[in-house]
């Protein structure tokens, strides 16, 4: 049903998508919809949770990668951008908290992992020793959120790509030794 709702919401306003439309598109009876969701609002909450879960799933293998921090962050931003692109048409419906990466425990754990990696690379001389790891990790988190929210404002794939590259340039500047 989530996939059916996403399909319908890509092309219509939320007010124009009815529960019978969602059920029909999903190939189930209307009553089956109500076995899973009490309302469209609850369905949107489930879509929001799916979006966050997809972001976490995209980030998880990257953060376990032993590559240098800059490469890791580039891959992380690329994957988060890809997830946001997949949800682009419905991001505005998911609620503001869905667009913040660390508004859930897994996202916070990932940012903590980035903080630890910054500390490790400071010891190795790969990141400036004057950089405060916790603040840098928080800034990276903010940039992840801004990049996702950038999909709401951008009107073309070129704008999204430019936003992505500018975000990475800022991170590279922040992390330079």
Question: Which key features would you list for this structure?
Answer:
mainly alpha; single chain; 177 residues; elongated; Tetracycline Repressor, domain 2; 0% strand
Written overview of the protein:
The chain is mostly helical. It has helices at residues 2-11, 19-26, 30-36, 40-63, 69-86, 105-123, 133-153, 157-175. 23% of the residues are buried.
Categorize the overall geometry. elongated
Strand share of the residues?
A: under 5%
Cα(first) to Cα(last) distance is 49 Å
**How is the CATH topology named?**
Tetracycline Repressor, domain 2
Low-confidence stretches: none
Radius of gyration: 19 Å
Number of domains: 1
List the helices and strands in order: HHHHHHHH
**Percentage of residues in helical conformation:** over 70%
- Give the total of beta strands: 0
Q: Could you say what the CATH architecture is? A: Orthogonal Bundle
Q: What structural class is derived from the secondary structure elements?
A: mainly alpha
Largest sheet descriptor: none
Instruction: Find the CATH superfamily.
Output: Tetracycline Repressor, domain 2
Mean pLDDT: 84
Name of the CATH class: Mainly Alpha
Number of helices: 8
